[in-house]
User: What shape does this take?
Amino acid sequence: KTKSENFITKFSKVYTPIVVLLAVAIAAFLPVFMPGITYYDSIERACAFLVISCPCALVISIPLGFFAGIGGLSKNGILVKGSTVIENLSVLKQMVFDKTGTITEGKFGVSKILGNENALEYAAYAENNSTHPIATSILEAYGKEIDGTRIMDVEEIAGHGISVKLDGDVILVGNEKLMNQFNVDYPRVDELGTLVLVAKNNEYVGTIIIEDRLKKDSKQAIQSLKATGISSVMLSGDRKVVAEHIAKEVGIDSVYSECLPNQKVEVVEKLLPNGKLGFAGDGINDAPVLALADLGFAMGGVGSDAAIEAADVVIMDDNLNKIPLAINRSKKTMKIVQQNIVGAIGIKLLVLVMAGFGLAGMWLAIFADVGVSVLAILNSIRLLKK
Ligand code: ADP
Ligand code: MG
Assistant: This one.
């Protein structure tokens, strides 16, 4: 439940006994203090008073606003897990992005193979069981059937790469960190692109240079966020040159590269005190961060099940423009919920006072009850528009 929903629950607890007692007082004491008023009149006024004070509109208007907000978002391919998410979205201050699969497509093309041509075959066998976007791309580039019986002892080392046994030889496939960890010597490469280094029995075999493409909407999404006053940060496990190149291209404010999964957690912990923080990722090596952020955004298309599970917001078509859209619509939802609260309480109080003075008959009482509910519903329906 959101703050506004809790407010209404508390409010009704105080409000209901008060109005019932007031109604009894009107019925019993009005004829005593005001000459000319009969008990018939006073009981009628008390009944009108009770009808007006029925808290229907109040109790339905808030959840209804949020349901409509959630419904409107889902029509736009944005799944939101509950009304607190809407509340948080409306006050978001900083947005942190994973690189691969979030800002970029996560579909790498092999642009070059250095060293031994066998590197691609070894890499494909090693990546056969991985769900990492790099793995999918290498398997696609290799394109041939994989004989699973040749592979044993697969071990995925998060943020580094993979180690497997292929026909009894130990194959390492991953970044420079992985090679350093196993003391493999390798030639340095300065080219732009993500490097996948391959080693066999701790001997360097070759380097596959792969390149990812920006999603076509990433730049625009970051700009819209900026226009709303939200700062952007990018986290990546990839090389510094690649991460910084991409950040510059889309206009990200700050970059943290060559992060291991636990370093991503540390960065987000450090940023959390600066204001409501959202994190968008695909869940591969970043599910802990998704859960840690005030708001986790998962990519519904390329995202892993763990990410979709841990996230608060799921973007079905992976389009980053949906993030500013979700923020704007949540702000609108909060506005409509507030209009409903102020409108319902305001009209009710006014008509209640009028009824106390005998200025509101039963017809106005019914308007203050059912009429206000209908107005709140109509107001909320505005959020369902696409
Ligand atoms: P990002 O933060 O860009 O999404 P990850 O944290 O998923 O990247 O991975 C960080 C780095 O670790 C990758 O850039 C890659 O060099 C290496 N890596 C991770 N998993 C694999 C894998 N299955 N095969 C090859 N390299 C990998
Ligand atoms: Mg990733």
User: Anything to note?
Assistant: Residues 306 and 373 are 41 Å apart (CA to CA). The pocket of magnesium ion (ligand 2) is lined by residues 98, 100-101, 282, 284-286 (CB under 6 Å).
